[in-house]
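Retry 2 of 3 after timeout on previous attempt. Resubmitting structure tokens to design endpoint.
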């Protein structure tokens, strides 16, 4: 009951921090999508390059988030942005690359060769095949990678509060520093609920973007 009262008393602040959190993750994953999808498409041309890119992206994900934020501080301090918004966005952008690049690469590679041949047979150029056949068929898998990146990094962004980025992690960091379980629990629950809501929202978007023929095939026993 005490937690509910605390959340209601601080509802305006909770809402503001939630919107701040969404903004931070949205910008970071949005940029990661704009960079990761083209990279995932490009590496389908070379298996050796694909292995190298996916290996580097995998290494980045293994770096503890608090350590990556710490690395950003001296590097970005050179331009006066050692703490706050920019290092948080860059760190989450880096963490988002692996699921987006990997899913894009996998989706494009797994397009039915017969469809490629059919597109080639009607005179489509490689760029036309990519734009009109391969990418539309790959969208559901690419969106699954984006969903994974978003849900993962909603949690990671909570840690960015320790470098002054704001968001819902502020409740958690203050709850720990002030030994206030109310702030800690409200912040943790808010982060979890946000991840669930966003995941289901993106799942709906994913279904809307799935070509009707694929959707029908997926539901056919």
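Retry 2 succeeded. Sequence:
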């Amino acid at each position: 009951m005490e937690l509910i009262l605390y959340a209601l008393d601080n509802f305006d602040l909770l809402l503001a921090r939630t919107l701040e959190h969404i903004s931070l993750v949205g910008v970071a994953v949005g940029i990661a999508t704009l960079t990761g999808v083209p990279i995932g498409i490009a590496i389908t041309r070379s298996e050796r390059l694909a292995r190298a890119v996916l290996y580097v992206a995998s290494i980045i994900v293994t770096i503890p988030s608090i350590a990556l934020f710490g690395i950003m501080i001296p590097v970005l301090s050179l331009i006066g942005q050692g703490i706050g918004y920019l290092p948080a966005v860059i760190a989450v952008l880096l963490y988002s690359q692996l699921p987006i690049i990997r899913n894009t690469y996998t989706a494009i590679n797994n397009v039915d060769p017969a469809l490629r041949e059919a597109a080639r047979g009607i005179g489509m150029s490689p760029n036309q095949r990519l734009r009109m056949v391969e990418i539309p068929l790959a969208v559901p898998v690419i969106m699954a990678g984006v969903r994974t990146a978003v849900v993962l990094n909603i949690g990671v962004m909570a840690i960015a509060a320790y470098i002054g980025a704001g968001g819902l992690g502020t409740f958690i960091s203050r709850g720990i520093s002030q030994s206030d379980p109310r702030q800690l629990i409200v912040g943790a629950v808010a982060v979890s609920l946000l991840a669930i809501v966003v995941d289901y929202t993106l799942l709906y978007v994913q279904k809307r973007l799935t070509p009707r023929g694929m959707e029908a095939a997926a539901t056919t026993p």
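Attempt log closed. The CA atoms of residues 2 and 182 lie 8 Å apart.
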